[in-house]
Amino acid sequence: MKMLQAMMAILSTTLLLTSCTKKVDLDEKVLNLAVGSEVKGMDPIYSNDRYSSNEVARVYEGLLEYHYLKRPYTLVPNLAEAMPQVSEDGLTYTFKIKKGVVFQDNKAFPNGKGRELVAQDFVYSIKRLADPKLQGLGWWLLDGKVAGLNEWREKNAAKDETDYSEEIEGLKAIDSHTLQFKLKKQFPQFLYSLAMPFTFAVAKEAVEHYGKEFLNNPVGTGPFMLEGGVFKQTAKRFSYVKNPTFRKKLFPSEASDEFKPFLADAGKELPLLNKIVVQIIKEDQPRWLNFLKGKVDYVAVPKDNFETAITPDRGLSEELAKKGIDLLISPSLDVTYTAFNHDLELLQNVNLRRAMAMAYDVNEMNTLFYSGTALPAQSVVPPGIAGNMPDYKSPYRGQDIAKAKELLAKAGYADGKGLPEITYDCPSSSTSRQIGELFKKQMAEIGINIRVVQNTWPELQKKITKRQVMLYGIAWGADYPDAENFLQLLYGPNKAPGANGSGYDNPEFNQLFSKAAVMQDSPERTALYEKLNRIAAEQAPWIYGVHRQNFIIKHGWLRNYMATDFESGQAQYINIDIAEKKKTAGKL
Amino acid sequence: MNIWSYVIRRLLYTVPIILGVCLIIFIIFNLSGYDPAQILLGKHATAKQIAEVRAELGLDKPLIEQYFDIVKSAFTFDFGRSWASKQDIIEMIKEGAVPSLTLTFPAFLISTVISILLSLLVAFFRGTFIDKAVVVKCVGMMSIPSLAYILFFQYFFAYEMGWFEISGYEHGFPNFIPYVSLPIIIMVIISLGPDLRYFRTVILDDIYQDYVRTARAKGLTEKVVLLKHVLKNSMIPIITYVVIQLPFLILGTLLLESFFSIPGLGGLTVKAVFDNDFPVIKAMTILSAMAYVIFTVITDILYTVVDPRVRLK
Q1: CA–CA distance, A310 with B266 (Å, rounded to integer)
Q2: Residue ranges with strand state E in A290-387
Q3: How far is CA A421 from CA A342, A443, A451, A464, B286, in A?
Q4: What is the C-alpha separation between B275 and A47, in angstroms, rounded?
Q5: Low-confidence residues in chain A, pLDDT < 70
């Protein structure tokens, strides 16, 4: 009997504790985020995925950033006082650093008080990125570009310890607040590197104080500080608070037309939020349910909820609209594609490639896998950046079975006769497999026999590098908003293990690309980009898929939020309308 | 035989087992042929940097030296840092083990107790409608995929009814309770079917033995026969079944942890496999093998407790 009583007591206590579910915070400006994957750590030099780079950019800052309210994407100074002075030969970039910027208070500094940021901090941070002992994941950004940096890296690879004291010709602190870069050759995209978290400023004291645990102890100059100071990689929830020593930075007072409503906060001191709570929620259902309960401020509409949330004319369902929820649709700077392995003689046959491109029904793929929301790609450069031609239609964009058959016959394989089985390699997710199965079905319509091969991601990467694939399905997202970042995927010298996994090597394309890659932004460069884009369509080095679109829904109380491909640092501009939240959150 | 000398002897057996495990994972890692350097460097990898990273990870060392590095880490418990995240592996495991256990251990305990009690009950009603109904129910419950339970319970009880947190976790007692309650209930329901069917079979195997007839002939009540005689004699297969599951509790449950955002070890190994993060795969495999050996020893010792006829040799 006593045992039964004890069990009942335990059960009732548990039920009591269980029933205390957390309520939404209505008194503070708290941004509640749901993130779909683990964050590796908070060291800028390892932030090579969007999850890590977004977290790094809450605490750390760089010389430049993208103007929050301008499109096309425009670089503006962040820790730099102004945009750099560029020498006439386009090789020397001189930056003035803002004065009075301090690192967050931390025990790594004497008396725990953060010191002022100086030009030498950037020299140190960029050397860290180049340090061969650390193998920073953003080294590709600067590899072969800054005078003396590769030599310094090579020299130190042989040493037991990296020598940071050695001066580098192309990376100098001229005085405490003047920084100078000298490039080996013209590289107009260099400035984009300085807006990427890889090159953000870290303090030498903090790196030395925390040693290998520096990646879990972020100390930057940014608008937010990690609550508790220590990052735990396995944690599924962590938060940031306002950095009390953050410099006076104001909300922008200019905006492109579509962002004019955001100017209500113009001139206000940043950050506008008191706190950010980040939850790692990998699965769609809990992310969606937490959003509907008001515990997450915005989410991408999951595939399984698309039909119920979005109307056929791409509007928000009435049920969600009644709850004060808004829909945001924005194109993503990316491209999905099926690449041919150009090392294989078979696939060097341009008519065969064109025939397959004509047999591929991108609209069916778009309907099945993106609910018809994506934009069929005509070539490699996505809309929104110079080089994309909005009205351009590729002559080899399917589906046109008759023309495909004609081209196949021209290639020497009428009705597919004489063609061997062609393998299509894809990652192991069920969606990738289904996309592969659709491709197989479509190619069968012109007599081409495809075998879908699924691989784990490492396996697929290995096969691409070792040239053990025939066709493979993959996607590319922009590192920075410049067509060069997409066109380099077809540049011969970038062959695998470089980014040109297909091994496409066209002398005409290579020559034009080499020319465009060193040109400053200008109508001439745009014309060259467009020419390259046309070649990429007509030669069909890939079968183009789609440029995806983001369908994001957000609660009405979330202000100044927009979907962007470059989210780093975004949170400082976001605002929460507390009154609106109090009004609507209780009804959810 | 002295129990301690038995334990020490059995634990010494772990040495060749661990050496073997190290060899197997080393061979598999090298046969798989994926290049971790390329995976780490991602889409911008160059041949030169791949070579540098391989050197930095020690992959350019002679194979025998690489094997002894694995063996060394197994005996020093110094598994180094993850290649993918650069985090200290032992810290990752320590931080993940507790949340996993707060979910799996109570669920395991509850489902085991309920299954044994119910199996005794159905054994009591063997052959009747109740027995058949329970067996059919068990098969029915086993036929439903665990994902269906998770999706439905999370939607209905956490979202619609608001009785539980939808997802998340807080460290420390009793903070974690609201977060693990629903996953525990789901895990109990998922385990109940197979556990109950297994325990029922074990008990029914015993219930037709001669000693049970003797006990009944002596006039003992059915309750005493079941609880004192049958249950005690069924304990050896039950203990084998139960104790051997214990090491896997620490490893967590992939689906539940993923859907409820519990920061356990459930996804750690799977993610490591996808990232080809060999140090993490190595650590998890070696620690699992050790835990398996230790719990096998515990099972052997428990045999002697429940059945005096069993002697440790």
Answers
A1: 34
A2: 298-300, 325-331, 334-340, 375-376
A3: 16, 11, 7, 18, 42
A4: 16
A5: 1-22
Interface touch B261/A20, C-beta < 8 Å: no
Does ipTM surpass 0.90 in this model? no
- Cα–Cα distances (Å) from B80 to A134, A201, B90, B269, in that order, read 15, 27, 8, 16
CATH number for the domain running over B97-268+292-306: 1.10.3720
Quick one: pLDDT at residue A5? Answer: 64
A452: which residues sit within 8 A by CB, 6+ positions away? A423, A424, A426, A433, A436, A437, A439, A440
Q: Do A18 and B34 touch (CB under 8 A)?
A: no
Distance between A499 CA and the closest CA of chain B, angstroms: 6
pLDDT value of residue A131: 94
Residues of A in contact with B260 (CB under 8 A): 286
Torsion angles phi and psi, residue B63, rounded to 5 = -55, -40
The alpha carbon of residue A456 is apart from the nearest alpha carbon of chain B, in Å, by 7
CA distance B53 to B45: 10
What are the chain B neighbours of A42 within 8 Å (beta carbons)?
A: none
- Looking at chain B, the domain(s) classified CATH 1.10.3720 span 97-268+292-306
Tell me if residue A176 falls in helix, strand or coil. coil
> Residues in chain B with pLDDT < 70?
1, 32-34, 43, 312-313
The answer to whether the predicted template modeling score (pTM) of the entire model surpasses 0.90 is no
Taking CB atoms and an 8 Å limit, are A281 and B263 in contact across chains?
Answer: no
Mutant choice from A32, A33, A135, A154 vs B, greatest count of B C-beta within 10 A: A135
Which domains, and CATH codes, for chain A? 30-265 (3.40.190.10), 334-547 (3.10.105.10)
β-strands A471-477, A422-427: how paired?
parallel
Separation CA A547–CA A541 (nearest Å): 17
